[in-house]
Write a structure and sequence with these properties.
single chain, 56 residues, alpha+beta
């Protein structure tokens, strides 16, 4: 199982991420990543990773 990291989100996105291997989280361009949850909901890919349904 991938290791959880500190939550982060995109300035313009609607979700936050908790895994560095999340494909949606990796796609966030440099300079748009923000630390924290940002009062957003958890990304569906991260939910799947946490549940063991997605390898990344």
């Amino acid at each position: 199982m991938p290791k959880q990291i500190s939550p982060f989100h995109s300035k313009t996105g609607e979700v936050y991420h908790i895994y560095g291997v999340c494909s949606a989280g990796i796609a966030i361009k440099k300079g748009r990543k923000v630390k924290g949850k940002g009062n957003k909901k958890l990304c569906k890919a991260c939910i799947g990773i946490r549940a063991g349904k997605r390898p990344r």
